[in-house]
Amino acid sequence: MKLLIAGSGFIVEDWLPLTKDLPQIELTAIDSTKRSEEKAKKLAKEYGIKERYADYEQALKETKADTVYVAVPNFLHYDFVKKALEAGKNVICEKPFTIKYDEFKELKELALKKDLVLLEAITNQYLTNYKELKDKLADIGPVKIVSMNYSQYSHRYDAFKEGKIQPVFDPKKGGGALMDLNIYNIHFIVGLFGMPKEVHYMANIQRDVDTSGILTMDYGDFKAVAIAAKDVGGPITSTIEGEKEALVVNGSPGVMDSFDIYHNSDKLGHVDDKVHAHRMYEEFVEFAKIIKNHDMEKVRKALEHSDHVMKVLQMACDDAGLKLG
Known about the structure:
The protein is α/β, with parallel strands linked by helices. It folds into two domains: about 140 residues, Rossmann fold (3-Layer(aba) Sandwich), CATH 3.40.50; about 170 residues, 2-Layer Sandwich (Dihydrodipicolinate Reductase, domain 2). The chain is built from ten helices and 14 strands. The strands form two sheets. It has an eight-stranded mixed beta sheet with strand order 8-9-10-7-11-12-13-14. A six-stranded parallel beta sheet has the order 3-2-1-4-5-6, with helices on both faces. Strand 5, helix 5 and strand 6 form a beta-alpha-beta unit. Helix 4 packs parallel to helix 5. The protein starts with a strand and ends in a 5-residue tail after the last helix.
């Protein structure tokens, strides 16, 4: 995979050190805004990135990369992915895919029409611990309750209260707890159980953005609750309760350090089959394989999952009266 990195923010800085363990990925190019040009220049030098751009359209036209890693702010995903696909590039897009479901649907159709790989970078779907937990579901009896809480006080929330609106709290830029944190919970639940029958979102809304909220997902025989907050902080918890046993996840739903198996209050077992310390390692190993083999069957399967997640997001926004983007 010859990669053009679109973006130079936190996620890129976090990911780049990992690439030393990913020999199947060639860091071909990086594109940034003109404002971040010096930062991108420093990253390019440190990680041996051959091509550097401060103009995305120029980058797409001139780069030798075959794949674009879209790691720009949420509200730019749609435009960056569409331009990359139109330029004939495979695309890996950071979560959430887009702000609106219709935008995602358009991108999916375009990628499949052009026979290009399009994948969402969402860590938990590729973690070995997550796959082990999924296999364990058959042993815990009929699931009755799924509860997840990802609450993390944002270091930008104090500024928000003072009226300084940054992208993570800007509804026009896809900000808010649903898109930033609850997206991990939704991927986690939908990846295990598929599309729910009903979705409701009770959000705490300030200045038209959800600073926290409770998402409920009705699966008929069982119910799931996904809580996320950027205005409070507390223990991150994820529990799946079956009639026989319960599974308790250790760590955030995007990292999933391990999980424990309980019967009532008795701990029966502990599972930790991490392959790598960095949460993004396993997804990029899989992305490289898919692109190398042009495995469109896996692409379609991954896009079907992302489709369900995007539908849940849109239903949640509609239910809460949120107008993002």
